[in-house]
Amino acid sequence: MDAEEEREKKRVQLADDPSNRAMVQRDLHDLPLDMLLEILSRLPITSLIHFKTTSHTGYDLIADPGLPLMFRNRVSDSNPCLIPFNHNLVGPWSRQLYFVDIEGCSRRVRKIDPPQHSEVDNLVGSCNGLLCLSLIDGSSASHSLLICNPFVGDAVRVPPANPFPNQREVFGFGFHPRTGEFKVVRIVWFALDVEDVEELMVQVFTVGTTEWRTKGATPPQLADVTGPPEALVEGSLHRVTFVGMGGDGPIFGIISFELADEVFEEIPHPPCQRFVSLEYSLSVLNGCLSAAGLVDTLHFDIWVMKQYRVKESWVKQFSFDPYFADGWPSHSRIFPELICALKNGEILLQYNNSSLVSYDPVENRFKTLQMSGLPNWFQALPFLPSLFSAKATMNLPVYASKKERKREKKGG
Q1: Helix or strand or coil: residue 391?
Q2: Quick check: 145 and 93 in contact, CB under 8 A?
């Protein structure tokens, strides 16, 4: 353990000491409210939620209407947090959500309990401090969906979509800044009989309404989509899709669904011939669409579209040989999944659905991040935490809880 990690450990121990907490609460009354809110806005989200649940003073301060905006402004200048999720059906980590703040030195891994005692099946996506979760629901052939702020605890259930015979479905979740609307996109394939040719349908649900809407003609590129969208950029959901067969094999392209006008569009791919025949992955780097893939057998390239929808703006920003750490099994994937960019110029990668690795392009150096408490296998989703409730974020009516009404009555 290095000196920085040792200092972080001591800080956490001091913060957890009951006598120290009592002393801090006494001192809080002597500080001006503006100063208190400024201090609180700089704390990690998990510390704020803990403070809120341990005292009346903490509850009242965290409930101050000015704090969520101050906290959001600070978080936007910080590294994103991670929401790891374990897909395993059995075992101690099965279907469990976690939270990791990679901004701090300790990088403590904490479990997250979904609102409404829900059992999570998959992560659909995240934006503006909200998570969209696919739930396990044995009562319906279609997945149930929940949009929530996992730290505030409130949630909005999405009405179930109509099921179809022999169906398979994927979802996407996003926000468009022009309309201010949050939407869920459903792509469903179905066949009236198992031997029939599959039909394809796209449906959209706008949060705040009551029904799913079916779109018209769908592009043929969606026929071979296998997973949810990989990147939300400029109010559009993006995915890599199979386009057809060429002389050298399969051809892949990028297709987007624009959430304001609800139309599909083709997005120019990186100007690299190998990417055309490569099933690469998409992500977001510093707000820009990026494409990452293994080329030339053992070489990993990351391209970034500096100006959205402009083909000439694609830039190969990173290129490196794959990393292989000591102790990894011989069958490990030698190419990573790109997670996000860090504020220090490094990028965060995930190998083998387990190891998190930072890459420093200046020093061409990799570092495996040690995080005690993570499951052996997980999917990691970048996430910017928020103190705004899910309903407030989506401009839905917010009603005080029984606990809040009781507290207000007692205060009055």
Answers
A1: helix
A2: no
Q: How far apart are the C-alpha atoms of 335 and 236, rounded to whole Å?
A: 27
Please state the rounded mean pLDDT for residues 387-392: 90
Three-state DSSP at 390 gives helix
**What are the CA-CA distances from residue 319 to residues 332, 347, 351 (Å)?**
20, 12, 16
Neighbour-count burial of 145, counting CB atoms closer than 10 A to its CB (0-12 exposed, 13-18 middle, 19+ buried): buried
pLDDT band at 279 (very low <50, low <70, confident <90, very high): low
Distance of CA 344 to CAs 81, 222, 250, 291, Å?
A: 15, 37, 37, 21
Mean pLDDT of 360-380: 87
Cβ atoms of 4 and 105 within 8 Å: the answer is yes
3-state secondary structure of 244: strand
CB 39 within 8 A of CB 6: no
Q: Are 84 and 380 in contact (CB under 8 A)?
A: yes
304-325 pLDDT per residue, tens: 999 999 999 999 999 988 776 6
Q: What are phi and psi of 316, to 5 degrees?
A: -80, 105
**pLDDT value, residue 278:** 66
Give the pLDDT band of residue 14 (cuts 50, 70, 90): very low
Q: pTM for the complete prediction?
A: 0.84
Decide if 386 contacts 149 (C-beta within 8 A). Answer: yes
Give the CA distances from residue 48 to residues 71, 104, 302, 382, in Å, rounded to whole numbers and listed in that order: 10, 14, 36, 20
Of 407, 387, 383, nearest to 40 (Cα)? 387
The token duo for 93 is: 């980590």
Q: What is the DSSP letter of 335?
A: S
Contacts from 348-351 at CB under 8 Å and sequence distance 24+?
Answer: 348/102, 349/323, 350/380, 351/323, 351/325
pLDDT band at 401 (very low <50, low <70, confident <90, very high): very low
CA-to-CA distance for 359 and 14, rounded, in angstroms? 33
